[in-house]
Amino acid sequence: MGSKGRVPLRxxxxxxxxxxxxMPLNAIELKAVTKRFKNITAVDSVDMQINQxxxxxxxxxxxxxxxxxxxxxxGIQPHDSGExxxxxxxxxxxxxxxxxxxxxxxxxxxxxxxxxxRETINLFASFYEIxxxxxxxxxxRVGLAEKRNSYVVNLSGGQRQKLAIAVALTNNPxxxxxxxxxxxxxxxxxREVWGIISELKDNNTTMILTTHYMEExxxxxxxxxxxxxxxxxxxxxxxxxxxxxxxxxxxxxxxxGNGKSGELDNLDKMISLKWDEEKDKGIIVTSDSxxxxxxxxxxxxxxxxxxxxxxxxKVTLDDLFISMTGKHLDE
Length: 331
Ligand SMILES: Nc1ncnc2c1ncn2[C@@H]1O[C@H](COP(=O)(O)OP(=O)(O)OP(=O)(O)O)[C@@H](O)[C@H]1O
Ligand SMILES: [Mg+2]
Known about the structure:
- There is one protein chain.
- By secondary structure, the chain is of the alpha/beta class.
- It is 29% helix and 27% strand.
- The strands form three sheets. A six-stranded mixed β-sheet has the order 5-6-7-3-8-9, sandwiched between helices. Strands 11-12-10-13 form a four-stranded antiparallel β-sheet, with helices on both faces.
- The radius of gyration is 25 Å and the shape is elongated.
- It binds adenosine-5'-triphosphate and magnesium ion (MG).
């Protein structure tokens, strides 16, 4: 057969005609991942794709499932069902490769106390067959150079956290997973850690960071995922999340301790009401604050409720979180 009838070879393309070879590879991909502990579903059929170089914040209240999710990606906890790929590989078939490319800081890291800071890094460097000069380089980077000969037992809480980050960075990871890296740090140290983390962005590092701090997510991350009860409630850039509720207003009110009336559930133009039983406090999201406020004040005049205090303002990202989870981020 001559060359006439041959179809010329083309670069593979997707359904929109984009070249597949140049499309960003998913750094992390989860398909319907579930994890149960007895009667608790800690992670509930989660799908997630994270591109290489993306910084993602996982925001959620205590018990939301953040640590469980991250530890399954880290290969520390097995998942019950679904699939997890990191740079296209999985823990079952490629554990040596995955160990090499991941940097991990657990929510609570226990180091051996009677070992110095530098020895701790050297120990981890030896796992990765990395030269010993790396220890000094990395300790300088996280601001622990002066403490290199101190025993770990003598470090402050914040210094231990910096050591945990230093350990996570020892192998120059492609994938960085940090579980609440700045919880308990003073504001200055927190800023220092933010600086270290944002520098890595230039190396095309991919990161998932769990946090209770909205400002940390805003400062460091391109993308914010809000998680509660093992499910994703929102996923997008800060702008996208804010725009979702940009038309809304918030009314906060406190009642004198006579309890909540059922009539509060049907206020004019109300989108949602979160009621705090203990504080006798309500937070309303509304599409028309004047209409909702009028209705609220009418109930007060009719003595259905007795309002102690009431304020109205625009929605913030924090409100979005509260309206979705019923909890404050730092609860
Ligand atoms: N080993 C375990 N055995 C039983 N239940 C567990 C275990 N680990 C986690 N859980 C439960 O799974 C749920 C999710 O926990 P997880 O630690 O993932 O939450 P989190 O979002 O990291 O919370 P925090 O902000 O407090 O760190 C919780 O209800 C928790 O009690
Ligand atoms: Mg946790």
